[in-house]
Design brief:
This protein has helices at 8-34, 39-45, 47-64, 76-96, 113-144, 147-161, 170-190, 194-212. The chain has 215 residues and is mainly α. Mean pLDDT is 84; it is low at 103-108.
Length: 215
């Protein structure tokens, strides 16, 4: 399995957005620390922000090398297909599954509920897709050489990453594993990461909207 072709202009766009998300995440971490209290305690309470920065940084190094281990957004025709099919899959998930809002270490940004909801809706999907959907499959496949096993491994790691958020709920963890496998497989078949991004964003935004409206 090799990273699919992505025009340089789309790679530049991808890099720019990644750096922007890193800066926003760093601001959120500094904001949380700036609310007062022991710095180490606040960082521990918001450790998910540190994870996000690491995942984005690692993915950025992979997309910037001479031999990238990274699945970009692909060609424009594939981008559109990924968004369209991702929206269809997300709609089915949102209206049929009704999975409760959860994100790793959901207490993150406890100093501001509004920022926490923003973080869950816009930062988390981007970073998780970058790391678990765009980068790890290609890093692992260098040695595994089997796409099915690679996607399954990424799914298991994704599920474990949500272990705390789901309070050990086996059904939710299995759902996360299945979601990751499906999103990675869809990205590979469509040759664009926009499939996984679209599904992830619609799911998270819809759950944040439900929470905001008290549903």
């Amino acid at each position: 399995m090799r990273p699919w072709y992505t025009p340089e202009v789309n790679i530049d766009w991808d890099r720019s957005i990644t750096l922007l998300i890193v800066l926003v995440t760093m601001f959120l971490l500094l904001y949380s620390v700036g609310t007062g209290g022991d710095i180490l305690t606040l960082i521990q309470q918001n450790i998910n922000l540190v994870y996000i920065i690491f995942m984005l940084g690692f993915s950025y190094t992979q997309m910037s090398g001479k031999n990238p281990n990274y699945g970009g957004i692909g060609e424009n025709k594939n981008i559109k297909r990924g968004i369209l099919l991702g929206a269809v899959v997300a709609a089915i998930m949102v209206f049929s599954a009704g999975i409760k809002l959860a994100t790793p270490l959901a207490s993150t940004l406890s100093s501001s509920e509004a920022l926490a909801l923003f973080y869950i809706a816009f930062i988390v999907p981007f970073a998780e897709e970058k790391f678990f959907g765009n980068t790890l499959p290609f890093v692992f496949d260098r040695n595994i050489k089997n796409s099915f096993v690679t996607f399954a491994l990424c799914g298991v790691l994704f599920g474990l990453f949500h272990l705390i958020a789901y309070s050990g709920n086996v059904a939710y963890i299995v759902a996360a594993i299945v979601f990751r496998f499906m999103a990675s497989y869809g990205n590979q078949e469509l040759k664009t990461s926009t499939f996984g991004w679209t599904v992830h964003y619609i799911n998270n935004i819809s759950q944040v909207a439900r929470k905001f409206m008290g549903m």
